[in-house]
Amino acid sequence: MSGLRFQLDIYIDEDPTGTLVAGVKIPTALATKIPTIRQAIRDLKAYATKINAGKPDEEMTVRATYHIDYHNEVPPKPCGANQDI
Ligand SMILES: [Zn+2]
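Above are the sequence and the zinc ion SMILES. Below is the predicted complex in structure-token form.
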């Protein structure tokens, strides 16, 4: 059976003049859209199922998370814990 698979990996740079969202300031123009984006992702997740559920080649295709990323920090710090969207 076929299906529609979404795969996203999006990094937004911190914006010191932006708006605080989940512990990091991001551009305000985006920050105001986060509640709508978050709801849209939750709507997708509500219909999601695992590919090959229960089989050895099962794939985790019902996950949507975010975390604070410190890869540009000097010195680098480990990423924050993943949080469910
Ligand atoms: Zn990270």
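The chain has one domain: 19-84.
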